[in-house]
């Protein structure tokens, strides 16, 4: 570079630095300015030999990120300094985290360390989905350190998205996909709506450039007409607002390209058929005491002139979103028969909507309850507590919680609780407290007993009934939808499985001893392979519940004595008879070893369809073909919509199950001589001794003779045999038979 070019670049860097101080949302004290200056000097030194792909000096990137943090997000000097330093440790050999801590203190060092960890994660090459999900999970763990890590990372990602032109197309697509997958939902959840919108639009620009450019051009073409329409609409209500002496501004806001694309896709319409391509925002001045009153007064002014759509009223002033967002949204029929969304916000609400939590903290009073962001982070940390959670499941669950709509329900004492839309009474129980969830026996909604799977509606009052003897069972996973509840239930079931597994291990040791086999690591691995299981715990658990019985173990012992011959025979017979579908079926039955159909959960023959290749755990359905029997498709298979709309009568409900978790209803008939305490003896054996779930009881006594029927739920035949033997031993019982 020539001396003149260097001078010009230095002047641009100085200008960018001064601009940063000027646009800061918070008022900077002299100490704040000194801190930012010190961070700027270290950043200049750390990146002095670096250039970006575009050719410009690297320091422009941390300056731009710091500007987003200061202006768009509105964070304090600590965050601005951390943003300036966010790449220094990673990119410069001259600085370590220890150096940053000595120069700037623990808080800034913790934030920079968190950002450095995230950067090193994204440098992995050729990520597969599960590795990528694991990396996102690790990134979210940095919330434990300081939430500002994630917020600065979002600012960093925004600037990277704004300056991606000089990258390779495959790199652009990868970064854009990642942005849409996790960063835009995170920005949404933290209340950074403007940044979320820009991230989504930029994401679409690189993942589907044709669609992006088509919508972008059409918005540009219709801008003049749109501006004119907003002007006409505003003029009608301005006079009325002026008469009421409101201080206000009215702005027209075009919907984002991404949201227009989403509407076109979801509703199957063209650009011209999307009716609400913009919203009108009325921002009014008010003190906090009159905010709510003024909002509804403006609502009445707007609806005096334009007819509202009653099902499109959203009151987020009385019940703010968990992101902190407050506003009144109404959709009205405007001029020329067009629907227009009107957003009514005070200046304070508008700041919170645009700056997210920075503004929320600015207005926060000491008397306020726990902040929503803090409570959200606490819930998230609970989900992260379980290290065994599958990373892909975790990220999917996390994404659902980021974007989920909210409902508001009441506790019996009238306290308001926010839950995601689709939450059940069991989710509510875990939302109250983990122990309440674990001990849930039933639920009352609006005074009536309801199933635990009951989906809650806005305004429901929910009362959870608990019992010391209640505990989670596998069915609860079908009833719970929130990550918190599902995580806790899975942990409890795992503990239960471990306990049964420990008993099963001792049973297996005794049974193998009778077969002259020692239970050690070698024989355990052989048994796991023999029964086509995944882990030793699966083996011990199946022995514990009786799914693997004496006969099966004798067969294993026999096969073991002639292992070589069995191996050769197996090889030959497999080669001769195995088909592609059988191979696929064998591969997919590692955990979910059974596919069942219909409400009765029948086992039927089936084939895996080639168009979507479903695997266990996928949501699936069966399709009855003309020549090939039942074929299994994923619910999101490319052909699913066509099959379901054209051949609905051939669709069969289907789901994967782990056969060890399947339960069957059995009726037992008992007769004998009646005496005091007999019923208690029977129920004690069934529930306490055998841990079998009773569904129905019916006992009768006539002339000293006793007869009764019990409906029980069991996992297999072995358990029912044991139960019958124990019941026969009760004093006075004559006959016990399975109906």
UniProtKB/TrEMBL annotation:
Reading the lineage from the top rank, the first entry is Bacteria
Q: Which ranges of the sequence are coiled-coil?
A: none
**Which residues are in the TGS domain?**
405-466
List residues traversing the bilayer: none
- InterPro entries, alphabetized: ACT_dom, Beta-grasp_dom_sf, HD/PDEase_dom, NT_sf, RelA/Spo_fam, RelA/SpoT_AH_RIS, RelA_SpoT, TGS
Similarity annotation = Belongs to the relA/spoT family.
State the function annotated in the UniProt record.
Answer: In eubacteria ppGpp (guanosine 3'-diphosphate 5'-diphosphate) is a mediator of the stringent response that coordinates a variety of cellular activities in response to changes in nutritional abundance.
The protein, known as: RelA/SpoT family protein
């Amino acid at each position: 570079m020539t001396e003149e070019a260097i001078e010009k670049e230095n002047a641009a860097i100085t200008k960018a630095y001064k601009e940063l101080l000027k646009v800061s949302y918070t008022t900077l004290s002299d100490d704040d300015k000194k801190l930012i200056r010190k961070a700027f000097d270290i950043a200049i030194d750390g990146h002095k030999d670096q250039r970006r792909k575009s050719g410009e000096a690297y320091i422009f990137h941390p300056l731009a990120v710091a500007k987003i943090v200061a202006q768009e997000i509105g964070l304090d000097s600590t965050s601005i300094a951390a943003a300036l330093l966010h790449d220094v440790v990673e990119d410069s050999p001259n600085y370590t985290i220890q150096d940053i801590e000595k120069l700037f203190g623990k808080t800034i060092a913790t934030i920079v360390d968190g950002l450095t960890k995230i950067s090193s994660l994204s440098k992995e090459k050729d990520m597969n989905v599960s590795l990528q999900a694991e990396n996102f999970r690790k990134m979210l763990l940095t919330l434990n350190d300081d939430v500002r890590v994630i917020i600065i990372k979002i600012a960093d990602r925004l600037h990277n998205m704004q300056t991606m032109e000089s990258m390779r197309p495959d790199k652009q697509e990868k970064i854009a996909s990642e942005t849409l997958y996790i960063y835009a939902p995170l920005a949404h959840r933290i209340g950074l709506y403007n940044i979320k919108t820009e991230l989504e639009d930029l994401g679409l620009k690189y993942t589907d450039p044709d669609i992006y450019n088509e919508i972008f051009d059409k918005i540009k073409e219709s801008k003049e007409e749109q501006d004119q329409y907003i002007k006409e609409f505003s003029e009608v209500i301005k006079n009325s607002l002026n008469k009421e002496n409101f201080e206000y501004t009215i702005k027209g806001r075009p919907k984002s390209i991404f949201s227009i694309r989403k509407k076109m896709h979801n509703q199957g319409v063209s650009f011209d058929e999307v009716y609400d391509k913009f919203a009108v925002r009325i921002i009014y001045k008010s003190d906090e005491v009159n905010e709510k009153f003024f909002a509804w007064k403006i609502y009445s002014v707007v609806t005096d002139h334009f007819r509202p759509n009653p099902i499109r009223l959203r009151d987020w002033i009385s019940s703010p979103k968990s992101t902190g967002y407050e506003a009144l949204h109404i959709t009205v029929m405007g001029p020329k028969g067009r629907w227009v969304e009107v957003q009514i916000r005070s200046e304070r609400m508008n700041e919170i909507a645009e700056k997210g939590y920075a503004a929320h903290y600015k207005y926060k009073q000491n008397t306020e309850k726990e902040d929503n962001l803090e409570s959200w982070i606490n819930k998230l940390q609970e989900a992260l507590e379980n290290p065994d959670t599958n990373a892909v499941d975790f990220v999917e669950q996390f994404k659902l919680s980021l974007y989920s709509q909210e409902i508001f329900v009441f506790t019996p004492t009238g306290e308001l609780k926010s839950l995601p839309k689709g939450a059940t009474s069991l989710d509510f129980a875990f939302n109250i407290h983990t122990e309440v969830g674990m001990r849930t026996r039933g639920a009352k909604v609006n005074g009536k007993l309801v199933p635990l799977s009951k989906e809650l509606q806005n305004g429901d009052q929910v009362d959870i009934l608990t019992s010391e003897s209640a505990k989670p069972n596998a069915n609860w996973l079908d009833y719970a939808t929130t990550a918190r509840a599902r995580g806790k239930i899975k942990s409890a079931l795992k503990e239960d499985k471990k306990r049964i597994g420990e008993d099963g291990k001792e049973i297996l040791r005794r049974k193998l001893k009778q077969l002259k086999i020692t239970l050690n690591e070698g024989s355990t691995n052989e048994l796991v392979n023999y029964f086509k299981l995944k882990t030793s715990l699966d083996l011990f658990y199946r022995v514990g519940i009786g799914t693997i019985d004496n006969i099966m173990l004798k067969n294993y012992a026999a096969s073991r004595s002639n292992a070589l011959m069995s191996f050769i025979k197996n090889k030959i017979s497999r080669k001769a008879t195995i088909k592609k579908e059988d191979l696929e079926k064998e591969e997919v039955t590692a955990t979910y070893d059974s596919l069942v159909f219909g409400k009765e959960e029948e086992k039927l023959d089936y084939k895996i369809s080639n168009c979507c290749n479903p695997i266990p755990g996928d949501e699936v359905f069966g399709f009855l073909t003309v020549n090939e029997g039942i074929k299994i498709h994923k619910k999101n298979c490319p052909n699913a919509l066509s099959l379901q709309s054209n051949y609905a009568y051939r669709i069969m409900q289907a789901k994967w199950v782990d056969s060890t978790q399947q339960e069957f209803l059995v009726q037992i008939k008992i007769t004998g001589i009646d005496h005091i305490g007999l019923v208690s003896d029977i129920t004690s054996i069934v529930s306490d001794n055998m841990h079998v779930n009773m569904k129905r009881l019916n006992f009768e006594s006539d002339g000293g003779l006793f007869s009764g029927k019990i409906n029980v739920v069991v996992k297999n035949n072995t358990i029912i045999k044991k139960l019958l033997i124990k019941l026969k031993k009760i004093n006075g019982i004559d006959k016990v038979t399975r109906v």
